[in-house]
Amino acid sequence: MSGDLWLVVGLGNPGPAYAGNRHNAGFMVLDNLAARAGGRFKGHRARADVVEGRLAGARVVLAKPRGYMNESGGPVKALRDFYKVPVERTIVVHDELDIPYGAVRLKQGGGDNGHNGLRSVTKSLGDKEYLRVRFGVGRPPGRMDAAAFVLKDFSPTERRELELNVERSADAVEAVITDGLAAAQNTFHAS
């Protein structure tokens, strides 16, 4: 059933109060991918909203966990088990402080770098070798706490480029699916 299926998960926090936050970059990218796939998110018993469809010719399940960021792992594991998707065909899209705003970086595996959503996913999956599409949000200004920074909306200056950056991150997800990680890295890390 799942041999060619991909699970693409965007990390974020639920509800309108968080919708424009930097921490919700993953949700923004998944909304873009759902539009590309021509689907609408529907509730799933795995405590996530999902779209089943096709992206770049491949079968995909697009998912946004319904709980808070630090509880993302349970829904991701439940979806992976339900759809029987191997970890190497699981892509997590998330915000990344250590990458400049507007940059997109791709990798497989690695630590959580203090990101509570990644920590939860890695713990629940019992494996850190899932693919990651990292949406650069940059470091907080001055002495601002990183946790406070990611829970703030993108600045007016950042918002001018936000749609383009979301689009590029969605393109990166499709490139990983169609071309593989190494080729996608060559494309997106060069820019």
From TrEMBL:
It is found in: Cytoplasm. CDD domains: PTH. InterPro entries: Pept_tRNA_hydro, Pept_tRNA_hydro_CS, Pept_tRNA_hydro_sf. Signal peptide: none annotated. One of its GO terms (cellular component) is cytoplasm. It catalyses: an N-acyl-L-alpha-aminoacyl-tRNA + H2O = an N-acyl-L-amino acid + a tRNA + H(+). Keywords: Cytoplasm, Hydrolase, RNA-binding, tRNA-binding. Its EC number is 3.1.1.29. The record marks 95 as: Stabilizes the basic form of H active site to accept a proton. Belongs to the PTH family. This is Peptidyl-tRNA hydrolase. It comes from Actinomadura namibiensis.
